[in-house]
Every structure is written in structure tokens, then in C-alpha cells.
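Next comes this protein.

***
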Amino acid sequence: MNDNTPTPQQQQTFGWHMWALRLGFMGTIPVIPPGAELHEDSKVDPDTCGKVPGDFYAGKWNGLGRWPSFVMSEFMATRFDQLHANVGLIQGRDWVSFDADLTDPVLANAIHQHIWNRGGAQWPVRVGQEPKKLWLFRVDGDPIKSMQVNFRIDDNPDNIQGLEIRGTKTQVVIAGTHPTGVPYQWFNWDMMSLHAFPSINAELLHELVEECCVIIEQHGWKRGRKTRHNNADGTGSDLGAEPFDPALVPEVMAYLKNDELSYDDWRRVAFALKASLGGNGLPYFQQWSALATKNDPLATDRLWMEIEPDNSVGFGTLVTLARECTGGVLPGNLDERVRLAAKLKGAVQAGMPMDGQILLPPGVDGPVTAPDAPAMPPMVPVNREFMPHAVNGNQEVIINSMANVVAYMHNTPEWHDCFAWDSFARRIIVTVPFPGMIDPEPGRALTKNDQQRIRAALLRHPMFPRIQQSDVDTAITLRAEDNRFEPVQQYLTGLVWDGVRRLDGWLVTYGGVDPSGGAYVAQVGRKWLIGAVARAMDPGCQMDNGLILEGEQGVGKSSLLRALVPVDEWFTDSLPGLDNERIAVNMAGKWIVEMAELTSILKSELEDARHFMTRRYDEQRTMHTELQARYPRRCVLAGSTNRDDYLKDAAGERRFWIVECTLPLDVAGLIRDRDQIWAEAYQAYSSGEKWHLDRDIAAQAKIIQQERVEEDEWHVRIANYLEGRDVVTIPEIKSVIGDDALIPRQRPSAKKRIESVLKRLGWKHTKGDMKVTDPNRGNKQFRKKV
């Protein structure tokens, strides 16, 4: 067999979870890495780390009780790659595996030889701890159930061999590290195609297992009975079972009558419901109370705010009352599901929390490779305590109130996590589908149609029969602002630098810049990227400088700048004129802004360009008001051009750091390595490194800037006049230029234009020593620099 497992270097390049996702594996889940630090209250067996589905939060690992419903995304894949989690694959619907859990080498060899002869000579086989082996199959037909058969040869309870079908309600590790510390290896598979795995149905797989059972019996082992569950993950719980589902509560409530109920029984239901769901139970209590003919919505809400459960009643009370209304047994399979929920409460004590959190601890766990498309980062959990409703002087809940829309959305599970505020892009994001949503795409910006549909949904609620759209919009905004996040900050803090230095040489390695530029090119490239990190981590910080890429048209300068961002929306090359009032809107949500062909600068007045480059805040008129809002700038500027005479004043345009792209560019290489480049830049920023040039490099930058200043047509005339002179004044130069040349030169003024030429020729302003009677007294004097 040939081991085709990628090398550690290859693994570092793409990460196991991202590799599996992009290869096409559906149903991958995170598995706690071997040797991981577990939470103090976790009951996961430390020896089984490497096999148990898990989640990382508050700096430690715990079991992931809801792994059967976990949905892997590119963001989550990169997150768990950074955490070095193993990759689990859910079995049953799309995949099934045959696990020869045999420690006896004779048996293991006999089974492997039989499968080889049976037609599996080219079947991929996974090895974690020799001589155990596992074969993975694509399911052909209906999902295949799990099954396990154990064998004994004596009365020693520790001497057990087993064969197992890992189907429904199980998962297997397909990549990562075995608990012994040895990487899982695949043989007979090039790790690049899923078609190498054979297809199989339940009948053929059970036939294969039976043949293997016969072989083991022929070696003197006694077969035990088959079992239909898997409980070998070291947690003491059935990982495939559905966790306790709060949705059971409204289902049970649906069978609870409310026609001739006494006040005490009504209060009892309120206590039980609040004990079951906390503040999230209010909408269910409201809906159930509305079934009564004497329903009073205000009294319902008042009672809910008054009661404090004492754990004497709860979900069991609701079940008992509902069973009394249905003749002792809940309809359908609801009774069975309720009993299962009771059993699953024990799973928590066995180490598998029912609601594992998915969140990003500060400074920990981020992407190793960037996602190809923007993804919504997880929100930090908010306070889920019940939010009291706004009441009037009589302590009656105010209906059609914006404040109560906020409270309702906060208290109701269906609305609680629907909206978030993207502080980077300055927009509201739909994080999860809200009730009545037509386009259930999470992670996108809220639209006007969304707002109208939200109002339509609220109008059907008893508390909001005439709620106004403006109140709904304000409530959505307030709820979103409770869930603020900064995606670029989360991206940067999630990176871990591998220690390889790339920052100084990125312009040479990927940007086609001649390495003869030496320290200047190295420092310009380094400081500009650190400045970009600074703008993301400390919005509005001083970052005056823009990187200018010079090169022939079509060589890929814009593509290089775009390749620096892991999310395409964070880049723009569509900047309007500097006097355009929408310029702040165009820069919102952008990390790198390219002034393509320097159009914005070349068409603007010099002072406008200087102010734009040094601006720390951008102003934008807020929607529906005449107010101007100031937003700290979160982007850095870059430019591209194929000219070499685009600057107007080198002394004033020190803000441009110019490099020439004369060699071939490696855009693909930059995309491959950009995470590590940004990780190094973030490391430099975090260590306190500044993002301005050293004095010697700044002087070199000024020389390069001067070479890009377009030579004024007055340059030669003024230079000739200065021959043999030590002191001149502006009026003298004007007389040499002549009135005919001055008339059309109103902007910039002739005076400023002459001063610019004098400075470029090496002359500087001085107070001079003119006498009182000198006719030029009061005019600026310029002397040649010594």
C-alpha cells in the first residue's frame, strides 16, 4: 500500500477542514484534537480526545451535543483548521464506513486480506492505530443504519474484538491525528477525488460484514449479539441522538386546552412555561392565553413580568396537563420524543452539552486560509435575560410601541439572533432567517423588502396591530447594534503567523518589483501593510501614505491589490472624484481602496488631494436626516499608473510611496500566502511597530517622488534667470515670465507655481536682509540652498 497522506507542509497550506470542504465532503464536523484542554465541567474522557465531536469556546474544548445538525461553512472550516481540530464525517445518508476494530494482528490481517480479495484491492483504507483499519463507502440507496458485532475468545472482558458499521447516528474521523499522536493515514487514495470510494448499499455491506464474522469465528472467536447503537466515543452518551429541542414546548402546549381554565391553573401554566424556556416562553404564553374567551393581552404580559419560577413546576408539568387533555397519551410520536428528551438530559452530565456555543474567543482561532467568499462571523452571545416591556402609568403594556418591538425581538427565540451590525461596512446584516423571510440567505445585508416583511409579520401579533414602519425600522437597528462585530478585526486576530518572514519581500516576491530597490522597497511594502492593519484595528488612526504601483498597462497591478483582501467586498477601485458627496459611501466596508490610474488625484486640486490622503474621518449624510455623521476611516489607499510624471508637487506629495512593477507579477502566489502575510503584519502591529518610514528611507522616497513631478514649462525660463544670482523674489520672476503667460494661469496662482519651481530647483525662502529703502522690501526672498 502507498501512503498518500499529505505532508505536514501541505496540510499547513490548506488545512484539513478546508481541504475536505473544497473536495466535496458533505457533513463534516469538528472533532476535539488529541491532548486538548477541556472545560472543568466537561465529562468528555480526555483519552478519547481525537474522536469526539467538539466545540471550542472560552479558551477550552467541550463536547458538541448538536453535531448531527452542525453545518460546516468555509468560515468554520478555517476556524477549526486553526484550532487543529480533527475532521469528522457524519455517516448514514451519504457515507457509511466499515470499521475493523481488531487489535489481534492475525485477525486484522485475515480481514484485510479477505476485503482485498473481495474486490477492495483499490479501495481507500484509513489507518489510525495499527492493525485497526476502516473502509469508507458512498451510500447507494437509503441511509444505512449502524451495527456492531463483538467477539470473545475467553472470559477476559478486556480481550474483545469488534466489527462495526458506522452508519446513521455516528461519525468517523477522516483526517487529523489519532489519540496516540500518530496522524491518520489513507492508503490507495490520492486525496484528490471522492470517486475513489466505492458505492455500497445496506444489503451488500451486511453481506461483507457477515463474511468477515465467519472468518473471525474460524479463528476460534465467539460471536456476540449484534447491537444497533454506537456508544464507543468515550462520552457515555449516544452522540447520534437528537438533543433536547425547545420546539417540543409549543408542540406540547398545542394540546393544552384553555377554555374553562381557572386563574390558578392559568398561573400554574405561566410558571411552568417560564421555568421551561425563561423569557423566551412569553410569545407561547401569549398565543396560548389568546385561546381563552376572556383573554386580556395586557394582563397576560403583566403576569409574565411578575412571576419568578421556583423550579417546583416545569416542562414535566406541561406534559402532564397536556396528557390529561389528550386521554393520557400525546398524539403521534410526540410522547416518544418527550421521553427521549428526558433521557437526553443525562447526556449533559455525560459530557455532551446540548447547545455547544460557536463563537470566537478574542485573539484565538481564526482562518489559516481565507474563505473564497464573505462569510458572516459568529456573534458573541448577548444577554438573554428577559427584557421587560414598556408600560404606561397604570403598569399596562403599551401596544404599538417601538420599545416593545425591541423587547419582543429580544425575548423571542425566532427573532433574537436575526440581525447584527457590521461596524466595518456600516450596515445591518441578516444573520439567520427571520419569520416570514422569503430569501433565507444568512449573512447578507438587510433590504427594504425585508423591513416591510418584518412589519407584516409583526402586524399579525396582538401587541402590534398598528405598528408603524418607522418604529419597526428603528427596533431592527437597535437589535442589530446589540450584536456588533468587526469582520476585518476578527479575520486578523484569528490568524497565527508561522514564523516565516514574508513581509519585507512581498513586493519583490509577488509584485514584480526589482529587488535592487533594497531597503526602500522592503520598508515601503512592510509599513504600508502594517498601516492597513492599524486602520482595521484602530479605525481613524493616522495613516497618510498610499502605495503607488507603476508599471505597464495590463500587467496585473490592480489584480495584485485586489488579491490582498480575503473577501472581495473589502476592495474597491471605483472611487469617485474627491468632491463627490458619495465618496464616504463608496469607502464604507472597504479595507483597500485603489485610485485606479490615479484618476481621482490627477483631476483634483493639490490641496484637496492632500486633505483626502490625510483624512482620519469621513463624513456622510445619514439617511432620512440632514445630519452629517463622522466615521473613522478603516481603509488604506493605493494607486496604479503607467505614467511617470503624475505628481504636481513632490514636496507636498510625500504621502506617495512609489515602486515600479517591472518584473512578472505572481498574483496566485499572493492569494496562496496572503493569510501568512497579514498574520506577520498583525504580529508586527501587535508588538508596537510603527508604520512610518525611517528618516533615511523617507529621504529616498522624496527623491523618487521628485522624479515623478511633471516639469513646468516655466522651469527652463526661471532656471536661466537664476544663473549667477544668489537671491530672487517673486515679482522678479513674474517680470521674466511676462504678463501674457500669467493671464491664463489662475489656478494654481502664478505665485504658488513660481514657488514650486524655485523649490524644485533647490531654492528656499529666507527672511533676507533688505534695507528699509529697498523697493522689494516685504516680498519673499529665495536663496539657493548651500
